[in-house]
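Can anyone check this?
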Amino acid sequence: MARLSDKKSSKPQYFVVRRMPGPAWNASLPMQSQLRWAEHAAFMNSLETEGFIILGGPIGSGDDAMLVIEAVSEEALRARLALDPWSEGRLRIDSVERWTLLLDSRCR
């Protein structure tokens, strides 16, 4: 059962990433109608399957996305997301914040 603790050595590093539309994003189209949607979706699904992305999806109006990622470093995280067919052109990283996870009901 994960509870508040000062034990840090065995905890993975989590990051919260906000992605926003890039210059190639067509604001008149929904997300699933953007060019290369199928390739982007397959890439993101593979990251989720391997456990790199813990949580993710659109926020607000649906153009921005929030991801919770487990990675060894911010640099490693950025390198992996750079492989996304939508990187920079359709989706760019707006912010990356390290997240110290203190409460996690999934571990009960």
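Reply from J.R.: I decoded it. Strands lie at 14-21, 53-59, 64-70, 91-99.
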